[in-house]
Amino acid sequence: MVRKLLEYLGKNLNVKELDETKESLFMGSIRVNLNYYPICPNPDLTVGVGRHSDVSCLTILLQDQIGGLHVRSLSSGNWVHVPPVPGSFVINIGDAMQILSNGRYKSVEHRVLANGSNNRISVPIFVNPKPESVIGPLPEVTANGEEPIYRDVVYSDYVRYFFKKAHDGKKTVDFAKI
Ligand SMILES: O=C(O)CCC(=O)C(=O)O
Ligand SMILES: [Fe+2]
Q1: Which atom from ligand 1 is nearest to the alpha carbon of 124?
Q2: pLDDT for 79-126, tens place per residue?
Q3: Which part of the chain is the Fe2OG dioxygenase domain (predicted)?
């Protein structure tokens, strides 16, 4: 499924096929997290997860029936609840895809609200470049003379920068801005 999605997203970027090089950029390493959000006695004073975008190319998220995930609308800036739909995944674009696509795809800012009456579990699968990959706007994207707006960065440096600081919305992407 991930491969199909990436092939489809790649077509829009002039990437004809997911050869070995592209495979290591788009899906060279996978990380699975298990998130547990216990009932919170003070949900109004607490965040579940602060606002951030994922450093992945794609995130495939399985959430339970409780809800609480919000994504930020690019057009209005409003937070939009992502209601759980049984048997479905939430698919999010991450920062690596934004950088590789020279900003054509935008990583989604999201957060999780604390819940005063239910425990919640979520399982994100982060589909990432290989740690040692150098990521920057793909040659297929800039071939038409489009100015790159991101520089080349080693993916593990990008991830290290993300984890060094508190969640701060979409600011991590600035690390790769020219
Ligand atoms: O729990 C969720 O729905 C999302 C968690 C999340 O954003 C993350 O682990 O990066
Ligand atoms: Fe996330």
Answers
A1: 9
A2: 999 999 999 999 999 999 999 999 999 999 999 999 999 999 999 999
A3: 21-129
State how far the Cα of 154 lies from the Cα of 10, in Å rounded to an integer. Answer: 21
Question: What pTM was estimated for this model as a whole?
Answer: 0.96
Domains of the chain: 2-167 (2.60.120.330)
Residue with tokens 């795809």: 105
CB 122 near ligand 1, within 6 Å: yes
Position of tokens 């706007």?
Answer: 137
* Complex-level ipTM beyond the 0.95 threshold: yes
Task: Looking at the CA of residue 59, tell me the nearest atom of ligand 1.
Answer: 10
**Nearest Cα residue to atom 10 of ligand 1:** 54
Measure the CA–CA gap between 159 and 162, rounded to whole angstroms.
5
Protein residue closest via CA to atom 9 of ligand 1:
124
- 52 CA closest ligand 1 atom index: 7
Nearest to 131 by CA among 153, 150, 154, 151: 154
